[in-house]
Amino acid sequence: MTVKASTVVRPRRSGGRMSSPAHRWIWRAVAVFVLVWMAAHFITLGALKWGPSVRHDATVLGQMIAVAAFPLLFLLAFGTRNPLRGGIIAGAVGVVALLAVLLHS
Amino acid sequence: MQDTLRTRMGWLHAWVGFAAGLLLFCVFTSGCLAVFDTELTRWLQPEAPPQTAAFSPRSLDHVLPAVHDLLAQGEKPFVTLPSARDPYLRLEHHDGHEFLTVPYNPQTGERLNVRATAGGTFFYDLHYTMRSGVYGETVVAFAGLALLLTIGSGIIIHLKGLVSDLMLLRPFAARLRAWLDVHVVAAVVFLPFILLMAYSGTFIRARTLFPPVSYLASLENAFRVSAPSAAHRPEKPAVPIPEAFPPLAPLVAEAERTIGAGQTGYILFQPQTILVSRTDSSGPLLTREHVDFSPVDGHVLRHVLLPGAITHTEQVLKGLHYARWTGVGMRWLYFLSGAMGAVMFASGSIIFLMKRRRQSGERIMFRIAEGLAIGSVVGLPMGALAFFWANRLLPISLPDRPLAEGHVFLAVWVLSVVSGMAWSLLGRPLQGWKIQLFCLGGLGFFLTPLDLATRPGVAFFHVPTVFAATDLVALFLAFVSFQMARRL
């Protein structure tokens, strides 16, 4: 696997110990998974409120969006260089989806 | 390892791909076979002659006593009308795993004396539940999400070389390079199909992953202690089954006036209703439009067709995934694409193990992973072939014969996993691969002689397409297995 020199990022030090990227990625993947899963769940729930009036159609629409959004959001959040930024993106989508569940009349 | 987008995606692709890939290999392989479920049922019931007389609607009434018996047992029987794929009238019901089917002569309505079998729908059930009910369904749906992630990360990794990799296959290059070429070619060429199947399959089972109820409410319901009810609610009286059903031919004719001539496919029987439903082969939209009749006097109760753009989108996704509307050519294309999907998972898993063998080959987890890979990649096809062997070799009079066929399949599969694990833990995984590949080759190679020896009334000059195609695919699998075992 070839990597351009300009894209090399120095590993961060935490408490004097250097952790391997793979270890950090595991925790990052877990955190992103939880956030994205909650966002997908709130999208499904919210579709019943903001979606079509027929319950079957609303459920189907919510699940269509959730299944498509899950991998896209996961890759987006996991792909950002800064883990915090990825978390903020996934978290923001989740919060918007939650607000749509709570606030939609 | 440096922290770049490509390395992050590579890590995600490798680990999520391997963790879900072995299961997805089984899902794609069984899906390939499920595309031909009707045809395989004909192979598995060789007593039924390959050609039969034309359909007469009057024959439907001869099935009614058996329908009545099944309803009395609490089943939901339905009759499948003859079609281009299957010339027989079939009475079917779901036994909790697969649709058990009894063929009838489409002209006289006489029951054909054939062996009881789990049939081709065995692979359909295996495809989406792994024969584990709703838990299996959830795991398979979860693997579908993992597949979407793996495809996405794979595209990001190979984005630059997506077109050039398309034409690059070096089977005689270094082993890792050759496997990588196989993986990339299988994945890139069939990417649209794999992506469509991953999305539509996950969406179809999305209710297990993303139910339209809050998880909190579900948890509360799970832990809520049911209060003792002071007044015992009387049980709902069972719906009586009518003594006699009305003649079915006028009902089918009436339904065809609404649905369209020649568009009826199924007749579902319930104690209160007879549903005459549109055939799945009528088009890519799996509408399941139906006209309902009273089981007492046969008058029309209602016509049900779900309208709306979202429902139509759902029906298209289901229609494209199930492929019941397609002709033979398109079904073979589905089979080929599904097989290439399975090749993609198998080669990906092998690459994952090859890359880590030098560094982690002595670790117990690595050996377990390799044992599981042997058990999945070779074990599942071996189990599937054992299912066909069991169908022909188990005594016809064996009670619960369909279940016994399933048990043979599972026994061979488990044996393969245990054996693969044992060879791997003993530090001789190549031996495990070789032995199992030779066993797989043997099972495939000798399926044709077994078919010829055990098929009643075998003749070379009638229309044995279903039998010939099944035997030839098994022969091809045997050839590939022998070749792989030889080159290992």
From TrEMBL, chain A:
It comes from Gluconobacter albidus. It comes from the Bacteria. The chain crosses the membrane at residues 25-48, 60-78, 84-103. This is Uncharacterized protein. Keywords: Membrane, Transmembrane, Transmembrane helix.
TrEMBL record, chain B:
Coiled coil: none annotated. InterPro entries: PepSY-ass_TM. Pfam families: PepSY_TM. Keywords: Membrane, Transmembrane, Transmembrane helix. The keyword Transmembrane applies. The chain crosses the membrane at residues 12-36, 139-157, 178-199, 332-354, 366-388, 408-426, 433-453, 459-482. It comes from the Bacteria. The keyword Transmembrane applies. This is Iron uptake protein. It comes from Gluconobacter albidus.
